[in-house]
């Protein structure tokens, strides 16, 4: 599939959904789906950096996911720390920078340790910045931003009039990352599920029935080709573009 290099999204975000259903279809426990999902993560990161998309954000664990059965949460955390340990070498090879967004202090210390280590080791890489959303919730991010700005106003460091969209953007987890251009969600669900609420204001949305473990570089290219055929008007008329 031929993609126009000039019309690639700068920031691609993905809600990776359907691991559990994929495992069920195979008659296997849910964690088996997450394991296969982690393999897909590796393939997609590689493809995204080869295609030349500078920012990729993956929804790996939401604030709501803490409510899942304890065993599944523990297995996911274990999978994450194993993945991070193993993945750094591949990221270095591919010049990929790892970033994380979310309430990272709530993660188990083992995961946090691997995460910070991987982030530090890859901090000078320049191809794609991959942000893992971990213990992430969009409303909680907006709440935290509001509290921070309110505090600065209370301290007399800021006037309410100085609160601009740019300042809000600078106070979010994604402070140095451009807005989302394309949001993909797998597994047939057509929801945002509290993901990047501010950052997706003008994003194109793409929903596919493919379950995350079956999502492939080819499916990614299909989504990108679809994106390239859309007219992004940002509130203007076609004639004004
Ligand atoms: C959604 O499937 C997936 C998650 C809640 C976790 C995403 C995790 C991975 C893709 C694997 C590990 C991640 C990394 C970065 C190595 P679901 O369990 O909600 O599926 P279901 O809707 O079919 O039940």
Identify the quaternary structure here.
single chain
Q: What ions, cofactors and ligands are bound?
A: farnesyl diphosphate
- Mean pLDDT level: 96
Q: Between the first and last Cα atoms, what is the distance in angstroms?
A: 27 Å
* Secondary structural class: alpha/beta
> What Rg, in angstroms, do the CA atoms define?
18 Å
Strand order of the biggest β-sheet: 3-4-2-1-5-6
String of helices and strands: EHHEHEHEHHEEH
The major sheet is characterized as: 6 strands, parallel
Q: Can you count the beta strands?
A: 6
Instruction: Please state roughly what percent of the residues sit in beta strands, choosing from under 5%, 5-15%, 15-25%, 25-35%, 35-45% or over 45%.
Output: 5-15%
Counted by DSSP, the helix tally is 7
Word description of this protein:
The protein is of the alpha/beta class and 241 residues long. The chain has 7 helices and 6 strands, in the order βααβαβαβααββα. It has helices spanning 19-25, 30-51, 70-93, 109-121, 138-154, 165-170, 217-228; strands at residues 11-15, 55-62, 97-101, 129-136, 182-185, 204-207. Strands 3-4-2-1-5-6 form a 6-stranded parallel β-sheet, with helices on both faces. Helix 1 (19-25) packs across helix 2. The model has no long low-confidence stretch (mean pLDDT 96). Farnesyl diphosphate is lined by residues 16-21, 34, 37-38, 41, 60, 65, 79-80, 83, 132, 187, 212. Farnesyl diphosphate binds at residues 16-21, 34, 37-38, 41, 60, 65, 79-80, 83, 132, 187, 212.
């Amino acid at each position: 599939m031929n993609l126009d290099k000039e019309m690639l999204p700068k920031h691609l975000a993905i809600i990776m959904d359907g691991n559990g259903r994929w495992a069920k279809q195979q008659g296997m426990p849910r964690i088996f789906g997450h394991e296969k999902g982690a393999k897909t993560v590796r393939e997609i990161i590689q493809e995204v950096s080869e295609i030349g998309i500078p920012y990729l954000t993956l929804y790996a664990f939401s604030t709501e996911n803490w409510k899942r059965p304890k065993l599944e949460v523990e297995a996911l955390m274990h999978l994450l720390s194993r993945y991070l340990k193993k993945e750094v070498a591949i990221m270095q090879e591919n010049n990929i920078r790892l970033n994380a967004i979310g309430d990272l202090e709530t993660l188990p210390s083992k995961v946090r340790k691997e995460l910070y280590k991987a982030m530090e080791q890859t901090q000078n890489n320049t191809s794609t910045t991959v942000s893992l959303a971990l213990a992430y919730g969009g409303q909680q991010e907006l709440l935290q931003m509001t509290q921070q700005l309110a505090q600065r106003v209370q301290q007399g460091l800021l006037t309410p009039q100085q609160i601009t969209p740019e300042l809000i953007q600078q106070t979010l987890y994604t402070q140095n990352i451009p807005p989302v251009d394309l949001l993909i969600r797998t597994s047939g669900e057509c929801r945002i599920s509290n993901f990047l609420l501010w950052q997706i204001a003008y994003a194109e949305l793409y929903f596919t029935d493919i379950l995350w473990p079956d999502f492939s570089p080819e499916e990614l290219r299909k989504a990108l080709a679809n994106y390239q055929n859309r007219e992004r008007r940002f509130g203007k008329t076609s004639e004004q573009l």
